[in-house]
Amino acid sequence: MAVLVEATSAIVRTEAIKERFPGGWGGFVAKLPNKTVCSDNELVRVGFLGPNDCKKFVDDLEREGLVFVRDDRAVDIVIADQMSGFMVPCEWAEFGRIKLKPRQTVAAAQLKGSANTQLYCPDGWEYEGSITQRFGFVPAKADQQSLRFLRRQHGVDVYLNSADGKEVYVGRRGP
Q1: Strand 119-120 vs strand 2-5: parallel, antiparallel, or unpaired?
Q2: How far apart are CA 107 and CA 111, in angstroms?
């Protein structure tokens, strides 16, 4: 089985949630900061538009007793980027790509040794119009260069890219 990796994703071992997270699965779900969760019953994925928001979520999980990294290796959680894979070595999961249809390939993570290739995605996710289909990279200082802030809408900062005239969306946690 596998879970979608889109933008920046926190990948968590389901077993660790059930065994050590206060309140188990229910406690974990109550702490979710958004609706991008999906699970294949072996791994859980929560997605973020930016790495800083993902790291804040991982920090929250660590305060609840899960372990991100020990000895430079992922323990219960690994952060994955849809383009470059895992941010630290991970012995319990694999990163790869799954072809859905011609010209429709997505990034995914699965528990090592899992033979099932079914892909699990957040409720309502479709390839058409997804971040995967429309992927673009926003450099850290882009808002000082080619992006002009337009507005904050539903927890998302909206910028105008002066290079192509398109709007760019950057998710934010908190107020």
Answers
A1: parallel
A2: 14
Q: CB under 8 Å to 38, separation ≥6 — which residues?
A: 3, 4, 44, 45, 120, 121, 122, 123, 125
Instruction: Provide the strand spans (E) within 14-155.
Output: 38-39, 43-48, 69-70, 73-74, 77-81, 85-86, 93-101, 104-111, 119-120, 147-153
> Could you tell me the two tokens for 113?
């040794």
**73 touches 88 (CB < 8 A):** yes
Pick from 92, 72, 91, 88: nearest CA to 80: 88
Domain boundaries, the chain: 2-120, 142-171
Per-residue pLDDT reduced to its tens digit, 18-40: 999 999 999 999 999 999 999 99
Q: How confident is the model at residue 173 (pLDDT cuts 50, 70, 90)?
A: low
Q: What pLDDT does residue 51 have?
A: 87
- Beta-carbon contacts of 5 under 8 Å, excluding residues fewer than 6 positions away, are 11, 45, 80, 81, 82, 95, 106, 107, 108, 109
Query: E strand or H helix at 5, and its extent?
Result: strand 2-5
Residue type at 76 in one-letter notation:
D
